Amino acid sequence: MSDLEVSARLARAGFGRRRAGTGTAGRRLPAVGEATAGLVLLFLVASALLPQLVAPVDPLAISPLEAFRPPSAAHPFGTDESGRDIFSRVVHGTGPSLLLGISATLIGLVGGIVLGTAAGMLGRVVDFGVNRLLEVLFAFPGLLLALFFIVIFGPGIVTATIAVGVSTAPGYARIIRGQLLTVRRSAYVEAATVLGRSRWRVLVRHILPNTLAPLFVLGTLGVGQAIVWAASLSYLGLGAVPPAAEWGAMLAAGRTYISTAWWLTFFPGLFIVLTATATTVLGRRLQQRVREQG
């Protein structure tokens, strides 16, 4: 019996079934992860829209006698140095943190659309200039670029939001430019050009709708990154500042007591990680569906 025949019999005897089982488990695990991410996002949305319902305690109410209480039934996430309830502060901080991340992502997407469209539609000279600008911006890490922006325009939550958006714009611009150049070479765009349609009409009616379709997926993936960067800026004192109920500001306020009151930084940090992970999982799933449909 040849080696090929032995391999074939082994595959029929059991190896194929093991692979099938592995494939089923492989499909089940992502499904569980997506369901978990969906539940996390559902809780975050509820916390952002109805914080008083999820956590009725005033996040700014001070109770010195309750300071530094560890997690308990009365205070699930413990209390801070002023006796404020950490659970209530984390829940009430969901809205500002999500709003900051979504706003920064929208700013980055708009900037990316402008730069990417200019590079792809306004000729070689503009394309060359935009590409050189993007290369210069890519030379700086995104967070460092945001810090540079804040140094020029000053700290603050609005400035931090714009800074994060500006730092993410180059990545979106390069993706949009590549997508736009691909769509420009498609048959329906060439047909519209042959029929005498103007460049801007072709751009608005045919190129942009097919170029901007993946942006929702890109934006979903970018929200988590924007939230992490915005929290990092707040942690450095360049965004929201204590006693604001914002996750990065809570991390900044709790770092002084990290050795004695670990819950002050653990729970805000946990929510930052959960939010970034859940939005990334959702974005990856949407990206996979777009590819399957394409």
What does this structure look like?
With 294 residues, this protein is mostly helical. It is 76% helix and 0% strand. It is built from twelve helices and no strands. The protein has helices spanning 3-49, 51-54, 86-92, 94-121, 123-138, 142-153, 157-184, 187-194, 199-211, 215-235, 247-254, 263-293. Mean pLDDT is 82; it is low at 1-22.
Summarize the structure.
With 294 residues, the protein is mainly alpha-helical. It contains twelve helices and no strands.
Describe this protein with a few key phrases.
294 residues, disordered N terminus, mainly alpha, 12 helices, 76% helix
Ordered list of secondary-structure elements with their pairings:
Blueprint: H1 3-49, H2 51-54, H3 86-92, H4 94-121, H5 123-138, H6 142-153, H7 157-184, H8 187-194, H9 199-211, H10 215-235, H11 247-254, H12 263-293
Helix pairs in contact: 1-4, 1-12, 4-5, 4-7, 4-10, 5-7, 6-7, 7-9, 7-10, 8-9, 10-11, 10-12, 11-12
Overall shape: it is: elongated
Instruction: Compute the number of strand runs.
Output: 0
H/I helix tally: 12
Gap from first CA to last CA = 46 Å
What is the helical fraction, as a range of percent? over 70%
